[in-house]
Amino acid sequence: MAEIRLERISKTYAGGKAPAARDVSLAVADGEFMVLLGPSGCGKTTLLRMLAGLEYPDTGRITIGDREVTDLPPRQREIAMVFQSYAVFPHMTVFDNVAFGLRMRKQPADQIKPRVERAAELLQLEPYLGRYPSQLSGGQRQRVAVARAIVMEPSVLLMDEPLSNLDALLRLQFRAELKKLVQDIKTTTVYVTHDQVEALSLGDRIAVMRQGEIVQVAEPMVVYDRPTTEFVGSFIGNPPMNFLRGSVSRDNGHARVTIGSEALTAPTALAEAVGDNVLVGIRAENIEARAEAPSGGANGAGHALAGETVVVEPLGSHLLITAAIGGQQLKVVTRTDFPTGPGRPIWLYPEEDKIRWLRPDTGAAVQV
Amino acid sequence: MQRQVALERDTALDAPAPPARGRRTVLTPYYLLAPTLLFLAVFFAWPMFQALILAVQDNGRFSLGPLQRMADDVLFWEAIRNTILLTLIVVPAQVVLALIMSLLLVSGLRGAGLFLYAWAIPLGISDLAAGVVWLSIFNDRGYLNSALAGLGLGQTGFSFLSYEHPVSMFLAVAVAETWRATALVMVILLAGLQVIPKDYAEAAEVFGATTWQRIRHVTLPMLRPSLQVALIIRTILAFQAFAVVVALVGRNLPVMAEEAYRWYGDLRNPSVAAAWALLIMVFSLVNTVIYLRALRVRDEQLA
Amino acid sequence: MAVADTPQTLPPGAVQATDILPRTAARRKGPVRWPLYVAAILITLFLLLPIYLITIAALSPRAAVNDFPKSLVPRELSLETLLFFLNSRGVVASAWNSVMVGVITLVLSLVIGTPAGYALARFAFRGRDAFKILILTTRAFPIVILSIPLAVTFIQWGLYDTILAVALVHTALALPTTVLITSSIFVSVPRDVEEAALTLGCTPVGAFLRIALPLALPGLAAASLFTFVLSWNEVFAAAILTVSQRTLPAQVFTSLGDSPLPFRFAGGFALIVPSLVFIFFIRRYLFNMWGRVVR
Predict the structure, then answer these.
(1) Are strands B57-58 and B61-62 parallel, antiparallel or unpaired?
(2) Contact yes or no for C264 and B285 at CB 8 A
């Protein structure tokens, strides 16, 4: 077990147009489950491969525990890795696959057997130890790949989209199992995925990446509730966070944000922070929808935004409503019995403390 | 407003960036290529050069003598003419036959796997063996004459391979060469057919194309890169045709490679032999350039 | 090897010959298809009948060569002709030379060419494309002519009239193809499994030897057979570079002029048999190998 530190890592592939990593720094605490999340091509896998020693950074330092490993080959890093394609050895039995690393470490044979069996037990592979990978299903092969990694008792466990080749049902099941397994063995883990649900469900923390840079590192609920950029808000969550364009004005020392003909009260400091225009970020489930006009009349509306329902999609547990306010569309989640339909008026009440204010030019959130 | 930095919790990482180490140059692939390059330099590039030197020297001095002797030889033009004629007959025959074979194979015949195996067999047969095989058929008392006799067409047998019958002699060589080397062309074309997506043919069919139109306007254009490769390889091999000719008709039909062999082996003159070798090389390179230009594969066609 | 008989782990580079053909069942009922079968059967006859004929010619008694007209079914089978050929001076020795030349050629071209093929398959490096073009360009050269200048060189080196000299020329002939074939074989061995071995404690060489090589072995074996037959069939260089150390094709070729027909038929048959065996063994790799090499 060990802490990982990436310090100012940069990497451009030979012949690559954009850098795969630019000046990336990240610290992963001992025993932490860190998820690298981002769209394909954002550099998350490159970062993982540099941790593994399969690629080397152009500049920067990598330390695992107390050792600098920047230039060390994989075998000297005390890591183990699970590959997206499983990468089990087709010409070896399950037992030989799992035992492979221990044999490379020259462990005595009488110690290898019990350790392989324990790893196989953890992943429910005991009945298959004598089989070849070609006789296993995709899910079982991935279990072999995980067993082969954890049997090494590595300081750091690296996983590159280990669930992405499984079908949806199996993925759901194995995800929970993987979480339990990693909790039990308490190994520092770095896990790469492009699936935001996976990231939210597995990570102690999530590092969101884009174009070779880390955009935000935080606990899953923080990343979800308080994205630091428009990109993070729209990449994470389903539906993505709503972003509405508004203009900022001052009113008796209070700031007001106007969206079309509707207005929201905003923190006083907002005007200094963003200037004349602002992006209002709010998640669909953080908006309360009502079908009747507020009783206090137009002035007493408070935070109510009057709009019109455009589309209603029943999704079983809830309704997903697309509504229009001042020419902009947003998604709202309501109970299934919410009385509305296309063309009918709707009144929306965003939860004040869940609103994110962002600069429209950079997409960066502001703290007010 | 300060741009939010990723490291919310880590202030310890403000250390200055470590010095850049410059991009690594990985030497491993060059070490791995070195043996091949070295070997080809010694046993491929150097002899090519050596052939050139040999062809223009006489007793260690520069001389056009060997080239002169080659050109003055009574068989010079005949060997060139025969080689070109043979190439002109054999290569198109092979390509057409191979095209038919590969189209048959992908047309969904029952037992196509078996046909494929049978048709691939000549791949492993040398030109010398091919010559001998057809000698058993074309000789005066061979199987062809036996068959003709069986059909009541001539009881004495026809001397197909005699120099008195240059046409039949020539055709016998062409048939043997076609028999032996069509499989190679077929394999190349089949590989090319494999990578043509079925969608195109199906789309053509939807638009009402007949089988022939489909082959003419969809399959053949897409097969162009494979055709190019097959033509280049086959033509170069045809320029070197040699043992099949000697085995079938002996010295009755001089061809270029045979002359090179004769000057080296029988006449003990490496310089003139090297001159012939050079001539074959020039023919091959010119041919390659012609094919590359005539059958140019435009990038947008491959996209 | 256990891999070979497990269904999903076809050795890398292997594609069943039949895989590339469409499934008959999937074809719609269409226009009349019997002419296609007629064409296929005629082609098969054209390609296989001569092999049958040389076989019966080699297995008939020597005197049968003068029979006329000959029948398609031999009157009597006998090993007389074949034994006459095998007992002729130099034939057995030259067959042995051929085997030795073939083995040296395939070892040399594998040992020299495999690393280059591996490098092409695994590394992105400056000059990779240039090297590939160089290898492809060798095809535009008539390689047999190499043997004439080389003969002169080998005389100087004292290598003339040795099986090593022939094997060296055959290696030059086979090497470009070996590089391309091995490269396509290693491309089909997933990079991931080798990287997995690296993360599990292997050195790069260890990962190659323990993982990539075993997985590539069936393909490499096919490539070796390919090389062997290339060498076994080669006449020109072998005839130029040897006087006493003939290979079998060189022996048959140089005695064509002064040997009776039965001798030649038996020689042709002897040359063909290994080729038939070869095609049988590599049939499942052949198309795949060529398919990639010609791209």
Answers:
(1) antiparallel
(2) no
